[in-house]
Amino acid sequence: MDNRLKKGLVIGSLVLLILVIGALVANVIIKNRLKEGLNNFSETIKVEYQDIHVNSLNGSVGLIGPKISVLGKTTNKINVQIRLKELSINDFSYWDYFFNDKINVKSISFDQPQIIYHHNSLVNLKSSQDSFEGSFKKDVEIGAIKIINGHLSVFDVANDSLLLKSEEINARVNAVVIKKSNLKDKIPFAFQDYHLTYNNMFYKLNDYENLFVSQANFNADFYKIKNVSIKTKYSKEALSKKIAVERDHFDLTIDSLLVNNHDFGVKNDSAFYFKSDQINFYQPKLIIHRDKLVVDNLNYRSLYSKTLRNFNFGIALSKVYLNNATVVYTEKVNDDPKGGRLEFSNLNAEINNLSNTYKKNETKTTIHIDAIFMKNTPLNVQWDFDVMDNSDEFIFKADIGALDANHMNQFMEPNLNLRLNGIINKNYFTINGNDLTSRIDLKLQYDNFDIVILKKGGKEKNKLLSGLINLFVSKDSKNKSSEFRHGHGTNIERDKTKSVFNYLWLNIKAGLLNAMTGDGEQN
Q1: Any residues with CB less than 8 A from the CB of 35 and at least 6 apart, and which?
Q2: How many whole angstroms from its chain centre is CA 410?
Q3: What is the rounded distance in angstroms from the CA atom of residue 346 to the CA atom of residue 325?
């Protein structure tokens, strides 16, 4: 063998041996330094693990079977506990660390994290934020952060009740950048895109309602959520015993919802915003029950425009669609377990410009609804208002098709102690109003209309009162000049302790009464 070749092989072998030995020594040094750092990480953060794998050549570290416990500063009790199969950091850049004053890694993976968080609403988050800011001495760049098959549980410290739970959490956030100079911002990091999925989520909305989600798929292009429900956690009877004033019992289910072309963030480092070009709700079904035997809730209730205007975040939804929705409202006013019932089915709605980011008079929120009322009556509604108008002015127009008055009796008899007979063939009305008062212009066509006042208990006809009221009610709408009778109502005051729909009903009632008992002429 040529001497030069022999010498080259020897030198190459020595260099390789030195590199291998150097890498092994470096692995041991890094491993020992990591152990020392983890064992003395913080007074309030304790890290336990089964083993550490280090590869200094490619800058990778794997923490096997770690358990991370975060303790409260004052209570010394565990606030957060995280168990993982493995925590791995891949391709750490030594060059950037030593020469560019930043931490740069290709990826960080959390494999099968089991996270338990004990939430304390009394804890001041400012100290945690200060600690977070102080822990970053360099800029950080991470190619990808991955969570694989995670599980999250959040408990209330006050009573150890479950606040939030989710299973099979998988997430990936790409191109994460944390700048030292941005740590005081509400969102102190930037990222390129993300993908998050989870199953079987439970969230306690408040003391009475819970939220459930079967599946969720979030990414930078769309959100898709399946089998969403919000339910009162008590039965109707149990809820009535627990509340001091009226509160609706409701059951909302949504087959799925899809959010397209969305964006979110913080504007001017202060106000959070969310916007989307289009949101679709598929087959939502809302069942509401109110026990009127419970004391009235006299708190002020805003119109929808004011509610949107007073959100503490910006919302801008160009279009919202309700597809094949159902709304059922029942009311209990006496001991009858059935109560009154109103139903809207095959409801399809298009809502445009649902937003509180426009300027006054710049655009309006418009709502168009088509539905079937009480099984077989077509209903068409056009509703619009300017969210940024402090007077909360609105216009509500409706076109109601043929309605057999008997279909209303399941609500009228138990709630108003009266029975209606006859057919309303057509009913059109327009309500113009604001937060204080409104007026209605109505016209209707009807045949053989009769009002029966019932005796107390709702079983027998009160012949005297029924006869008196029908003296003032026109039996049908036909006369020499027109087939329609016109009704009007002005200066109709809103009861601010009741809902928007109560306000609409006050107007409709005034218009109907004027049409049937007045001269029926347009004015």
Answers
A1: 52
A2: 33
A3: 6
Vertex 209 angle, CA 204 and 211, to 5° = 55
Assigned token pair, 404 = 């057999």
> What is the distance between the terminal CA atoms of the chain, rounded to a whole angstrom?
118
3-7, 187-191, 278-282, 304-308, range with the lowest pLDDT: 3-7
Neighbours of 257 (CB within 10 A): 19
Q: What's the Rg (C-alpha) of the chain?
A: 33
Q: Is 274 exposed, middle or buried (0-12, 13-18, 19+ CB in 10 A)?
A: middle
DSSP state letter for 295 = P
d(CA 129, CA 140): 17
Distance CA 150, CA 169 (A): 5
CB 80 within 8 A of CB 91: no
Dist CA 390 CA 303 (whole Å): 11
Written as six digits, the tokens of 94 are 């030594």
Complete DSSP assignment for 457-522? TSSSB-HHHHHHHHTSS-S-S--SS-S-EEEEEEEEE--TTS-HHHHHHHHHHHHHHHHHHS----
Q: Are 199 and 166 contacting, i.e. CB atoms less than 8 angstroms apart?
A: yes
Q: What's the mean per-residue pLDDT of the chain?
A: 84
Q: State pLDDT tens for residues 32-61.
A: 776 776 777 677 888 898 998 888 778 788
Which amino acid is it at 179? K
H or E element at residue 210 = strand 209-219
Helix (H) or strand (E) holding 19: helix 3-39
Helix (H) or strand (E) holding 239: helix 236-242
Main-chain phi, psi angles of 151, to 5 degrees: -145, 130
E-strand ranges in 23-120 read 45-48, 51-55, 60-64, 67-71, 78-83, 86-92, 102-111, 114-119
Is residue 445 a contact partner of residue 483, using CB atoms and an 8 Å limit?
yes
Query: How would you label 432-463 residue by residue, b for 16+ Cβ within 10 Å and e otherwise?
Result: bbbbeebbbbbbbbbeebebbbbeeebeeebe
Q: Which residues lie closer than 8 Å to 119 by C-beta, 6 or more apart?
A: 154, 155, 156, 157, 163
Tens of pLDDT, residues 288-333: 999 989 999 999 999 999 999 999 999 999 999 999 999 999 888 8
Model confidence, pTM:
0.88
The CA distances from residue 216 to 135, 181, 221, in Å, are 33, 34, 14
Q: What is the DSSP letter of 431?
A: E
Mean pLDDT throughout 461-477?
Answer: 57
The candidate with the shortest Cα–Cα distance to 357, out of 327, 392, 409, 318, is 318
